[in-house]
Amino acid sequence: MREALIAVMIFLCLTAAPLVSMAIWPRLPVRHRDDDTNSVVRLAANLFGVMTSLVLGLMINSAKNTFESIDHNVHAYATELILLDRVLRGYGPETDVVRQPLVVYVQRVAGDASPTGETPVDANRLSEHLLTEIGTRLGALVPADAARSSLLQDAGQRLQKVVELRWILIEQSEGAIPWPLIAMLVAWLVLIFASFGFRAPRNAITISTCVISAVLIAGALYLILDMDVPFSGPIQISPAPLQRALAELQR
């Protein structure tokens, strides 16, 4: 929702910039409308265009790396949940009391049992309580032999890894693109679009071109910002790994 609002604001700014420039230009003194002034404005616009291209490339690369890192961690998260369940099953029927909250927890993170469609990055009390309950019940088990003691130790390590990956996902979900960089990029784009209206003819074709260009630029920035926060919006991390983990636990 925040990314969509930012995209709308960017569209409005980019649309207004050339229109304001078109309206102001005829009112400027003659010395501000000569060819030399126009050449300087175009050179400045070209400079900002180059800088904007570089920053956009960096933003795309940053968002792509964030998306791929979180996707990798989600797969690792689902794998650890499956392996934890396998270890508990190998221990014996005594771990059924441990597996019950584990299944409920996976249902929540897979969005299967939560009315709010909880994602793996939701840090709420119920999820915390379920993980704490799993650890408490796991610690209450008394192994009867060395083999079960080894399995119990392995289960504890798996649970610790699950908790660690969960908090890594929570920290990564906030995005990596700094807002000052976005503000500076938008300012550059506004100046570039304003230069389009300098000495531009005031007709439907010119205005339509500026509006369509603003829509496309705002849409591109929206997708970049959305990819940087991959648990919401049109570009999201696939829930398939967690859904497969849930299917394995419910067998």
**Tally of helical runs:** 8
Structural class: mainly alpha
- Poorly predicted spans: 112-122
Mean pLDDT across the residues is: 87
In angstroms, what is the radius of gyration? 27 Å
Helices and strands, in order, run as HHHHHHHH
**Amino- and carboxy-terminal Cα gap:** 37 Å
What general outline do the C-alpha atoms trace? rod-shaped
What's the arrangement of secondary structure elements?
Layout: H1 2-24, H2 35-91, H3 96-109, H4 125-139, H5 146-172, H6 179-196, H7 204-228, H8 240-249
In a nutshell, what does this entry contain?
With 251 residues, the protein is mainly α. The protein is 75% helix and 0% strand.
Question: How is this structure best described in words?
Answer:
By secondary structure, the protein is mostly helical. It contains 8 helices and no strands. The longest helix is centred in the first third of the chain and has 57 residues, at 35-91.
